[in-house]
Amino acid sequence: MIVIAGEALIDLVPSPLPPDGEGGLPALLPRRGGGPYNTAVALGRLGSPAAFCSRVSADGFGEALLDGLRSAGVDVSLVRRGPEPTTLAVADVGADGSAGYAFYAEGTADRLFELPGPLPEAVSALCLGTCSLVLEPGASAYEALLRREAERGVFTLLDPNIRAGLIPDADAYRARFRSWLPHVTLLKLSEEDARWLGGSPEEWLAEGPAAVVITHGAAGLSVHTRDGARHTAPAPAVEVVDTIGAGDTVNAALLHGLATCGALSRESLATVAWPPLLDFAARAAASTCSRAGAEPPWAAELAL
User: Which of 31, 65, 194, 259 is the most buried (most CB within 10 A)?
Assistant: First the structure.
């Protein structure tokens, strides 16, 4: 089983319909979201045994988020509930489909996440990232979970998925990011994240991860491994509606592919067949980009 830990929130996405009346504002459509949440749903849809570990509001949005997980076949037994409201993220979608976000996260349920007890013995991998590793006090609990599970040999994937508007001290966050690397098996990040964080794949590999996967938008994906190898895969040509959830789908596709070929270990990342795995992840992300909001593909839509 693969555990995805982090926030679940509601994306408010502008409607494609024109505003009602001159000078009117576009309607905002609620969509289930949050980087870890999207990754969990994508994993479930691909058919991997997955569980979501978080703290979710007891409000109507929280119920809808849990329904989305259950519909994808994701185990929600590690989810805790709270009376606080659900975090909201207002998306601003550009002409090229790229999305920026403004967050309403003060006093919300997911920020109060606490370190859970030991994860089940059947857990083979843990995936974390995005807002959950920024917003305290929950961020420290997620960090403790990463360190604890890595120390007992669990495969870990980190996707920092930078939301700069939520980070009050960029230098402090960059230092914290570097402190996580000894506990990370696979680091995945976008080229925009890489520029913001500073450093290079070679530097990050020297600090812990066995491989670094970088997404390059329409230019596809690349991977760097500790033996100096580099592989790439192009992105399929699709009509992009928006890019919401594309990077999260890559996380899921990588984990699903590695689990399918029995390569969820640090040692296996040096010998895994990276080109077909990157191609699979690129196709899965492209499918997500062809739909509005974070709507990752089901297994029947893709062939590994």
Answer: 65
Identity of the amino acid at 208: G
Closest CA to 79 of 105, 104, 110: 110
Looking from the CA of 148 toward its CB, the CA atoms found within 13 Å total: 11
Task: Report pLDDT for 13.
Answer: 81
Q: Is pLDDT of 194 > 70?
A: yes
Assigned token pair, 244: 């919401």
Arithmetic mean of pLDDT over the chain: 92
Compute, in degrees rounded to 10, the torsion defined by CA atoms 1, 72, 255, 77.
-30
What pTM, to 2 d.p., does this model score? 0.92
Q: Give the dihedral of Cα atoms 65, 66, 69, 74; nearest 10 deg.
A: 150
Sheet containing strand 88-93, edge to edge, reads 28-33, 9-14, 88-93, 99-104
